[in-house]
Hints:
- This protein is an alpha+beta fold.
- The chain contains 16 helices and twelve strands.
- It has helices at 17-29, 38-41, 75-85, 89-94, 108-114, 131-149, 151-154, 161-173, 189-215, 220-254, 258-276, 294-313, 350-369, 392-402, 418-429, 437-445, and strands at 3-11, 44-53, 63-72, 121-124, 281-290, 326-333, 339-347, 372-373, 381-382, 386-387, 403-404, 406-411.
- The strands form three sheets. Strands 4, 5, 6, 7, 8 and 11 form a six-stranded antiparallel β-sheet that branches.
- Helix 3 (75-85) packs across helix 5 and helix 6 (131-149) crosses helix 15.
- The longest helix is centred in the middle third of the chain and has 35 residues, at 220-254.
- It starts with a strand and ends with a helix.
- The model has no long low-confidence stretch (mean pLDDT 89).
Amino acid sequence: xxxxxxxxxxxxxxxHVDAVTRLLxxxxxxxxxxxxxxxxxxxxxxxxxxxxPGSAGPDDDRASLVFEGNIDGPTARFLRQLRDLADGTVDxxxxxxxxxxxxxxxxxxxxxxxxxxxxxxxxxxxxxRSVGEVRREDRLxxxxxxxxxxxxxxxxxxxxxxxxxxxxxxxxxxxxxxAWALDPAPVPFLVxxxxxxxxxxxxxxxxxxxxxxxxxxxxxxxRLALLAVAAGAAAVxxxxxxxxxxxxxxDRKRTPTWQAAFAAVSGRISEVREFEDxxxxxxxxxxxxxxPGRFRRITLRAVLAAVQARARLVDNRxxxxxxxxxxxARWTMxxxxxxxxxxxxxxxxxxxxxxxxxxxxSGGLTAVWTNTGNAVGFPATRWLTSDGARDEARFxxxxxxxMVRTRVWYSAYPHLSVxxxxxxxxxxxxxGFLLGPDETRTWLRRL
Length: 447
């Protein structure tokens, strides 16, 4: 099963923002009834709806609605099923958006598909894991624990780990609702081979450069090619450093200290904080203005392409740059190239999430967001990846300013963290194998 991502962005009709806000708040308050049908569909990992403010400043009364979904299977099929299950609720929402005629018989699926702007980066902690598999593997662990806590499990106390493991296997094999777990779960191709592919992709360029360096002392053409590469790299680096100095000077004039930066966001913090830490899992929505000029847009697209390649080939086993609390995340540039939207479903609190980014992935974080700005300004950056987010106080003020309240949010398994899902996968993976004594003890501890 391959996960898909959609990011549907629509302008809200003038004067309709309050109506959309009330409608979304009503849907979120009634999420136990599943008004949008996400739970009944059984293919939605996470989904959210948020209202993005206008881009021209606090007096801009324009707004956009962003609807994101992390789903199993193709988006087109999901949207058709959503339309049929939501009993007109989705159509009720989009009647307030530009381009919807408001007439009966309006082709809602075609409308939503036309406004899907996709993703520049789509990160999945566990590629290939369907909603059904995640839930079944969690039930498997629960049933095994119930077996061990029952009378049959009591008789196993004091027995060797190997005997306990064999008894569990026999128990699972004897239950029709659990026997599926003895079949190994398929591992996606890129999870098995992504690191090799990444190495093969980098190797030709590295080899070519080494050959140029080796031949340069003896070959005029090689010297010219090497000089051209060096000159091009120097020109890009010089252009980048010049832009960084100019942007930093501009930002420091607006908010010279981190205290001033936090003062600039004080009006935004209270509402977002009230709703940001809902439980074991949470959702983050943010938007930032991309700095003007073609150079910044090209740089940002290149960075996002590199992050996407890493997410697909390397960071596909439960962590992104060492961060193991993210279930799904995406960066999406708006079609006009003026804004960057970030949407993430993660474990823990906002504060711990940002701290993990700063401590473990500040270089990549900086490379992305240094190309954007807001009323606070991104912290001073050097050479695209240095400093930047390491200025913790100022970076958090920047992040706070860009945050948008999530109006509707859905999780298919709100009690499971990314490590929980990995643990359940490992229980299933090693269930039907003969394990050594140490491996068996490790497996039993997973229960």
